Amino acid sequence: MAPSSARLAIVVPCYNEESVLPVMAPYFLEKLSQLMEAGLCDADSRIVFVDDGSRDSTWSIISTLAHDNEAIEGVKLSCNRGHQNALLCGLMQAKDSFDVTISIDCDGQDSLDAMDEMLARYHEGYDVVYGVRSSRETDTWFKRTTAQGFYKVLSLMGVDSVYNHADYRLLSKRALDYFSDYHETNLFLRGMVPLVGFKSTSVEYSRAERVAGESHYPLSKMIHLAIDGITSLSIEPIHMVMRLGMLFCFVGLLGLIIAAIMKTNSLLPFMVLLLMLFSGLNFVALGIIGEYVGKSYLEIKHRPRWIVETSTLGPINRDNFQ
Fold it and tell me: How far apart are the C-alpha atoms of 267 and 204, rounded to whole Å?
C-alpha cells in the first residue's frame, strides 16, 4: 500500500506558452492546494514547469512564478529537445525528491480534477495511473479518425499502449526509479511506460479545448511521433516488408509461368506495372529499414537527451541526463 501522505510533483512541460502560463498557473496552484487539503498529497508538494527551450518569455514567467510562490519550481533546458524529452527530463529531475509524480500538458485540455482520483488510486497501491479520455467529441473528424487509427496500428504492431491515453499519468517513485533504466534516445513515453509493469489502472476524464495559444502538435509532428512510436517499440514493419516481398516474388514468378505457357506478349503491360510496383516496394522497404538503421545510429552515439541550463529544484542531477 502507498503511504497515507506523499510528496507530489506535478510535472508540466512548456514550449512557447507565454499566453497559457498566466492563465493556467493559478489553476494548478488551486488544484495543488485542494489535493493537500484532501490529504491526498503532502504540504511540501510542488508544481514543476519545464521550459523546453522556448523562444518567447516562457522562462521569464516561470522564474517569476517560482520566485513569488514556493509551491512552484522551474527547470530550463538549454535548447528545444521536444515534448517527450522535456517531459522525461522533468520526471527524472523530480524522481529523487518526490514520492509520486503526475505529468500533464500546460494547455488546460486535460482535466485537473482527474488528479484526485489518480492519487486515490495511488494510495490504494497502484504505481501507474493513466489518464484516459472518455471521448473525442472536441476533436475534428480528421483528428479523431487518425488518432483512433493510430492506436489500432500500434496494437496491430504488437505495441502495448493504453487506448486514448497521451501523457497525462501518475507514476510512483518506484516506477520512475525502474523507468530511469531505459536509455532510449527515440522516446515514445506512452508506449514505454507499460513496459515497466507494476500495478496499473486508468481514470477517465473529459478533454476540453485549449485555453489559449495554438497547438504545438500539427499533423507533421503527429506523423513523426507515430513513426517514432512504431519503430521504437516494434520490428513488425520489417516483418511485414519481408512478407510482402515474398508475396510479390510469388506473384512475379506466377506471372512469368503464365506468360511462358501462353507464349504471348499480351501480358507485357501487366508485367511492366508489376515491375513498377515491385520497384516501389523496394524503395518502401529500404525506407523502413533505413528508419531502423538511423535510430540505431542515434542510439549508439548515446548523446545526452537533454541539458538542463538552470533549475530551481536545487543541484542539477547530471546522472539523469543519459
Answer: 58
Task: Supply φ then ψ for residue 293, to 5 degrees.
Answer: -65, -40
Helix (H, G, I), strand (E, B) or coil at 48: strand
Q: Which fold has domain 8-216+303-320?
A: Spore Coat Polysaccharide Biosynthesis Protein SpsA; Chain A (3.90.550)
* Cell triple for 135: 471521448
Rounded distance between C-alpha atoms, residue 3 and residue 18, angstroms: 37
- Could you list the beta-strand ranges (E) of 84-161: 100-103, 128-133
**Residue-wise pLDDT tens digits, 43-52:** 899 999 999 9
Report, as an integer, the average pLDDT of 1-28: 85
Mean pLDDT for all residues in the chain: 79
Q: Give the sign of the dihedral formed by CA 53, CA 59, CA 62, CA 68.
A: positive
- Please report the sign of the dihedral spanned by the C-alpha atoms of residue 91, residue 97, residue 101, residue 107: negative
- Cβ burial of 306 (10 Å; 0-12, 13-18, 19+) is buried
Mean pLDDT of 255-276: 65
Domain spans of the chain, in order of start? 8-216+303-320, 236-301
